[in-house]
Amino acid sequence: MVGERAISQSIGAANGKLAALLRSREEDEQLLKIGRVKIKEQAKEEAAKRPTSGRSAWTITADFGAPLPRPGRPRAADGVTTSFHFHSCSVTRSSIAAATGGLAASHAAYVERVEAVEVGSALDHAGYVERGDAVEIAVRPLVFSNISDDPDRRRAYWEAVDRCERQGHEGLSIDASVIGGWLKRVAADELPPDFVAHCHAERERRVASRKRPKSFKPKRYRADGRDCAAILDVLRRAPGWPDEDPPVIFTPGSAGRTQYRYVAELPHELGADDRAAIVRHFCDHLGSFARDAEGQSTGMMYTAVIHAPGPGNDKQNFHLHVIAHDRPAKWMPDPGKWDFEIAEEFKRKGETRVRYPHRQEKIVEVSRSLAPDKRSKHYNAAIAGKAFVPHLRERFASICNDRLALRGIQRRIDARSHEALGIDKKPELHLGTRASALERAGVSTAIGRYNAAASWQYAALAERRRTEVDLPRLSGEAFAQRDAVRSNCEGLV
């Protein structure tokens, strides 16, 4: 069964990469034919700055004269140390995330798409089979997870996280003292009737509480993010709307985090097996860095995937995607659910309530720094809150450097900033998939121009400093040679 699954995954990965290559060739052929590229939603700002000459606002002539960033990373004074890319973000449960594809399950499917995953000969981190002196090794996508070996089970896990995390109560907070006047300035049919009714009810409640002003507690109008945005769009068009102190504001509410996302650059000098070893070591740490109430090792639930360069990418662009959740979890065969999904009802003071008897506590260090009197016995303050991501950066750099040293490669990576490394260069911004596609097509983007300027300014500065160092030495050598020639000539005379 394991062998059949590995073969199936290998075939799927190969088909995915072939499809990606064919798509890339088709895109290249289309660009050669028309020399233009359609601009999508994320490039509206760029398109708006260019004249359209009566043509579509989404069509831009390619500019192949635009400068590109210099390849490679700047090095510190020792000549071997460089910075590296390590990005992190988190996603909360919200209707906006659902509408924009930001759900944990959706991103998990994106990360694990077969055309992007590197294929190599490596032991599967979560479920390799070891029998005596024989270990089955298959050529398969390099995916690591402590959730499950089964892709369907992993996706079901993220769907369960999306479903079970705390939902933020989004809505609009209203200043009942002035909202009545603003409602008169917009057409009644442009606003949802229930919103208008809520505003009138709030105004009446406030009037009724004039004798006891402190008794008035505003009630939020609840709606999802898109409906709230539509209402605010109508109100902002009202004459004289005060943007600096608006009487209606969006309140996102407090929602549970459904996913932490980390993207890290892998050393391109290393081979597939070494990259897999780095990721395996890093994931082992991610899944075991904390201690639970009993002092037992615990950590985040994760899926990690090594992405290989695509047909149109930089051939050195091997990078790691990690999607993780800060609540340890266990699969319960009976009733076939994750422990955090299992709920039971109970009575308390005559009310029916719900509790989750098997749900484990989240790892506090990932998101919060606690005051000394709030810390548990095994709380690790050194890596908590704002220090957590820097801790991961440092651990990742250490793991990479150990592997580079093992292979006899001089380069080292450092988690510190350019300033701390003595590198006088502005950090470049992450270009992103969409902007990268535009840049490859010859369409200059704001981030691309910024990165190009930063890299060439640094190159010019480095060359100037090199000249300042070399010029006195070269001048001294030239004067010495001149004096030697003059001396020899005088001897001949």
Describe what this molecule looks like in 3D.
- The protein is an alpha+beta fold.
- It is 39% helix and 16% strand.
- Among the domains are: 74-166 and 263-326 and 383-413, BirA Bifunctional Protein, domain 2; 171-251, no CATH class; 433-492, no CATH class.
- The protein has a five-stranded antiparallel β-sheet, with helices on both faces.
- The longest helix has 47 residues, at 446-492.
Low-confidence stretches: 22-43, 51-58, 119-139
Number of helices: 13
The separation of the N and C termini measures 94 Å
Structural class: alpha+beta
Question: Could you give a quick summary of the protein structure above?
Answer:
The protein is α+β, with helices and mostly antiparallel strands and 493 residues long. The chain has helices at residues 2-34, 44-48, 95-99, 104-111, 151-164, 179-183, 193-208, 225-236, 272-286, 388-406, 418-421, 433-440, 446-492; strands at 36-38, 59-61, 81-82, 86-92, 119-121, 130-131, 134-135, 139-141, 143-145, 171-174, 221-222, 248-251, 257-265, 290-291, 297-298, 301-307, 319-325, 331-332, 337-338, 344-348, 351-355, 412-413.
